[in-house]
């Protein structure tokens, strides 16, 4: 069971000579080991899996991998037998199993990067606002903002009035006027 009681920050920064290794040094070494392990595993996996999976942790002889969604997790499961035997023979002889978990934030982050890469490689560099749909503030919403501004503190009132003034204009054009 974990020790979840509050600890003094002094215990995290104790010097190495007094204690052997401080908790921060242990965490740093574990993070470096995971980064190296991640590079090794990505070199063993097919290139199409690289953006959608990564090493999450290695503890108690179990390697935990993350996949962006269930599709990539299934594809990664096909690679587990080969990955397990290769890792046991070359890098981690004590490895007992590989656990795969879904991490949706990995998918979101990577898909945004993939879209940016695809956009930049297929088109000439231009203003990103041209690709976004135009959004407009309705006159009814502007009236509601003005009523709200009447009962707001001065600083908020100015901002709400500026926002209400955008009614009928596309927000991308409003950004250019500033």
Strands, count: 3
CATH superfamily membership of the domain at 22-106 = DnaA, N-terminal domain
Query: What series of H and E elements makes up the topology?
Result: HHHEEHEHHHH
Assign the CATH topology of the domain at 22-106.
Answer: GMP Synthetase, Chain A, domain 3
Q: Tell me the distance between the termini.
A: 55 Å
Question: Low-confidence spans: pLDDT under 50, at least 5 residues?
Answer: 171-178
Strand residues, percent: 5-15%
InterPro entries: DciA-like
Organism: Xenorhabdus bovienii str. kraussei Quebec
Protein name: DUF721 domain-containing protein
Short précis:
The protein contains eight helices and three strands. The chain is mainly α and 178 residues long.
Task: Describe this protein with a few key phrases.
178 residues; mainly alpha; GMP Synthetase, Chain A, domain 3; 3-stranded mixed sheet; 11% strand; elongated; disordered C terminus
